[in-house]
Write a structure and sequence with these properties.
Layout: H1 4-31, E1 32-33, E2 43-48, E3 51-56, E4 67-73, E5 86-90, E6 95-97, H2 103-108, E7 115-118, H3 127-134, E8 139-140, H4 149-155, E9 159-162, H5 171-177, E10 182-184, H6 193-197, H7 200-205, H8 210-231, E11 239-241, E12 244-246, E13 249-253, H9 258-265, E14 269-270, E15 280-283, H10 285-292, E16 297-299, H11 307-313, H12 321-324, E17 328-330, H13 342-346, H14 351-362, E18 376-377
Parallel strand pairs: 4-5, 6-7, 6-9, 7-8, 9-10, 11-14, 11-16, 16-17
Antiparallel strand pairs: 1-2, 2-3, 3-4, 12-13, 13-15, 17-18
């Protein structure tokens, strides 16, 4: 039979042990921190000392699960981890990217010289990166979906940063099977313009450039929010139509699309703002005409560079008020040395510039000294 005082000591010991274990758990949890991600929903990060656990939560449209990466500093031991986690040694010594939207992030982080391969380098507009290409330091790997895997394997990049349209990963699966680490960058799925720009923090993780990424993003965010505040000063909300006809359908952004959000923040009334979709709409010409024939502006007209080109392609376009008043704007103005679109490369990293352009178009008096950067009014 246990004496009463021994029983009390036993209980006290168990309590102290439990309290000690709880404190150790709290201490361990407190050592793991998460950087501030304010707008991006597609990735999460936690760090334990110098080791970073990174998850791409939503790697492609309709994904039910994500991809996990364990970033370990060069020379450090690899901690215990699940078998499905891809190990990446950082900082990266080299990288192959597969989307031009990744290029500005490398430039802003001061890591331009780490790119060693890219599919169809003519698409790249960045002057810094074009210099590397012209000097032979970036190898053209052919068409994206048919990349030259032999060339890629010869390069032996630290990682290939790609994007996925489905769970089978396409060519990227073959890259993985060759033993080259693949990291999925899903910035294109972000719904908020600043969320997409915030993926610079994701790219920075692989180069130990988190502080630099924070500084760059803070500048972009500040400029964006300041411009939104300007736009809200106007009581006028001009109506906007967008997109063009391809084949038998008129393609335009859905009401919750990235482009629709930018128009709303610019103080415009996008005529399809009540549509609940985040992708693109396919509508008949007649339905678009009935809703948008009296629109104030037509913003986003594909590759057309003049009013004549538009009406020659489809004479019915002339019946829209923006065409008659020459209030039609294209973003396809700044073209790189080999024909790449600067808007499609840099624009998603700099939504603050796109927003200023849209405010200048729709509320010119709010930004009197500002000159359009990406957009141009067609003559």
């Amino acid at each position: 039979m246990i004496k009463p005082y021994l029983f009390i000591l036993c209980i006290l010991f168990c309590f102290l042990l439990l309290n000690c274990q709880t404190k150790e758990a709290r201490d361990a949890a407190s050592q793991r921190s998460s950087p501030t991600i304010k707008y991006a929903e597609g990735f999460t990060v936690t760090s334990d000392g110098k080791t970073k656990w990174v998850e791409v939560n939503y790697p492609y449209q309709g994904a039910k699960s994500g991809y996990q990466y364990l970033l370990v500093q060069k020379g450090d031991s690899i901690p215990p981890h699940d078998a499905n986690i891809q190990i990446i040694i950082t900082p990266l010594e080299s990288i192959v990217c597969t989307s031009t939207t990744h290029i500005p992030m490398l430039d802003y982080l001061g890591e331009t010289n780490k790119l060693i391969g890219f599919p169809t380098t003519d698409y790249i507009s960045s002057p810094k990166m074009r210099k590397r290409i012209d000097e032979g330091n970036v190898i053209d790997l052919g068409i994206d979906k048919g990349m030259n895997l032999e060339k890629l394997f010869t390069l032996q990049p630290s990682i290939v940063m790609g994007y996925a349209m489905s769970g089978d990963l396409g060519q990227l699966k073959k890259v993985q099977e060759m033993g080259v680490p693949v990291v999925i960058n899903a910035e294109y799925l972000e719904k908020h313009p600043l969320g997409r720009a915030e993926w610079i923090k994701f790219v920075a993780l692989f180069f130990n450039k988190e502080k630099e990424a924070d500084s760059v993003f803070q500048l972009i965010e500040t400029e964006y929010l300041k411009t939104v505040a300007f736009a809200q000063k106007s009581f006028e909300k001009p109506t906007v139509m967008s997109g063009i006809v391809y084949g038998d359908a008129w393609f335009m952004p859905g009401g919750q699309n990235y482009a629709a959000k930018l128009l709303k923040d610019a103080g415009c009334t996008y005529l399809w703002a009540n549509d609940p979709s985040h992708g693109f709409l396919e509508l008949s010409f007649e339905s678009v005409y009935s809703k948008a024939k009296e629109a104030d502006f037509w913003i986003g007209v594909g590759s057309f560079l003049s009013i004549n080109e538009i009406t020659e392609a489809e004479e019915r376009y002339y019946n829209f008020r923006p065409v008659q008043r020459k209030q039609v704007y294209t973003y396809n103005v700044r073209i790189g040395a080999k024909g790449g679109s600067e808007f499609l490369e840099l624009g998603y990293a700099r939504p603050d510039i796109i927003l200023k352009d849209l405010v200048k178009i729709s509320h010119p008096n709010l930004l009197p000294s500002y000159e359009l950067y990406f957009y141009k009014r067609l003559e």
